[in-house]
Amino acid sequence: MQNNTEEPKFKKVVNAADGLSLGISMVVAVLIGVGIGLGLRNLTGAGWTLWIGVFIGIGAAISNVYKAYAKQKKSLDELANDPRYTYKKEQQAKYDAEDDDA
Q: What burial class does residue 66 get, using C-beta atoms within 10 Å of its C-beta: 0-12 exposed, 13-18 middle, 19+ buried?
């Protein structure tokens, strides 16, 4: 029987893979953008179209970073509103009030 307080066996591996996925998605987005740029250059014959693909890839990478940030912020906001941690807010408010009186 498994104890409910015991962490899953592969939790560290999953957390590490989640952290790596942002970096990998950034690299893949830029590489796909470069591929689009090379395709446009071969299709049109204009060398500057490569840069269009590069900028598309960089934009996609920035979008991925923003999405990861928004997801992390949402998770942390939910954690901040968790009743298990409200006592820390109360203690901090009490500490701040004591500082204001001094």
A: exposed
